[in-house]
Specification:
CATH topology of the largest domain: Aspartate Aminotransferase, domain 2
Radius of gyration: 20 Å
Strand content: 15-25%
Number of helices: 12
Structural class: alpha/beta
CATH class of the largest domain: Alpha Beta
Distance between the termini: 33 Å
Number of domains: 2
Helix content: 25-40%
Largest sheet: 7 strands, mixed
Length: 357
């Protein structure tokens, strides 16, 4: 069973249908689809497949550096953000780490691979699934080698308090703790600057970014890691296998960050659909729903006798079951925000599952 969303084929086989017949709410991908600017560029440059990419990916790193007003030496692009989670852990080789739970599974797997001792900072419904000042106390008391933090969190979609986030950055700096901040979904928040502008002030701060979700290119896969420590980035680049990014993913990174019409259209779509879907889900008495900041919504089914993922599969809708996240139960789920028509189909199916509407 896949640990991630997007395992449509597996679920289609389970219920005896084609993958094309299932609406996938389990993977948080922009429903606007791949930008036309990229489709046009790929078709025009198909010949890129006939030669090796530049092993240094200079044009890609230059484009990312321009987008973030930093130097190419501060950036390492990769085959999705996941490759870079493993790369930074391999470089740091921490003996102890603090993880917020629930959280993205790959942090834990990467840390386990290097034999790291993992301490959990559990977040629960009682604290709104958000960290608070106790996290700062835990960092000082524990002094782990590194802390992973996702802004917004996956699967809850929640952003930590801005003042608290700054306090965490300062605390890690003072305690010499490497802070890896995963901003994979931050592009969906038009007003969030993220921590990239602060990299120069905090050499042990590493920021992860993904282009896969926002620009709807999960089949191409592209992410990047930024740090103010150029020596660290240089060493990670030397340690990696060559050519982990395919030619078309590299091409994507060279052009899509300049596609302002697509970026604006995405923010417009989300500004309409996010409040609509949250409000509709909230009207269902069988659900407890959290108002996230990103392009997905976290919820708990208050009817434990219903396996919501299986029930919706009968309606050819796949949602993300969150039982395999530490700290969550079989009653927790995550749904992507999709097109207006798909979102309406989800609500209709839920109303039928719960026997009203």
């Amino acid at each position: 069973m896949s640990e991630h969303g997007g395992n449509v084929l597996e679920m289609a086989l389970k219920i005896g249908t084609d993958a094309e017949n299932i609406i996938d709410f389990s993977a948080n991908i922009n429903p606007l689809g791949m930008p036309n600017s990229l489709k046009t560029a790929i078709v025009a440059q198909l010949a890129r497949a006939e030669r090796y990419p530049d092993v240094e990916y200079r044009q890609l790193h230059d484009a990312l550096a321009r987008a973030h007003h930093c130097r190419p030496e501060n950036i390492m692009a990769g085959n999705g953000a996941t490759e870079l989670i493993y790369a930074v852990v391999q470089y740091l080789r921490p003996r102890s780490a603090l993880l917020l739970t629930p959280g993205f599974a790959e942090y834990r797997r990467a840390l386990q691979r290097v034999g790291c001792q993992i301490h959990d900072y559990p977040m629960s419904e009682a604290d709104g699934y958000q960290p608070d000042e106790r996290l700062l106390e835990r960092l000082v008391q524990l002094r782990p080698d590194c802390l992973f933090l996702a802004t917004p969190n996956n699967p809850t979609g929640l952003m930590p308090d801005t003042a608290l986030l700054q306090a965490i950055v300062q605390c890690c700096h003072q305690q010499q703790i490497a802070l890896i901040v995963d901003e994979a979904f931050i592009d969906f928040l038009p007003d969030a600057a993220g921590l990239i502008p602060q990299l120069a002030d905090f050499p042990r701060l590493y920021v992860l970014r993904s282009l896969t979700k926002f620009f709807a290119i999960p089949g191409l896969r592209l992410g990047y890691l930024l740090s103010g420590d150029q020596a660290a980035i240089s060493q990670m680049k030397q340690q990696r296998e060559p050519w982990t990014i395919n030619a078309f993913a590299a091409l994507a990174g060279e052009i899509i960050l300049d596609d302002q019409p697509y970026i604006q259209a995405t923010h417009q779509w989300l500004a309409q659909q996010q409040p609509w879907l949250y409000q509709q889900l909230s009207t269902l008495p069988a659900l407890q729903v959290w108002q996230g900041a990103a392009n997905y919504i976290f919820l708990r089914c208050l009817k434990p006798e219903i396996d919501l993922q299986q029930a919706l599969l009968q309606h050819h809708i796949l949602i993300r079951h969150c039982a395999n996240y530490p700290g969550l139960t079989r009653d927790h789920y995550r749904v992507a925000i999709k097109s207006a028509a798909d979102n309406q189909r989800l609500i209709t199916a839920l109303q039928q599952v719960f026997g009203h509407g």
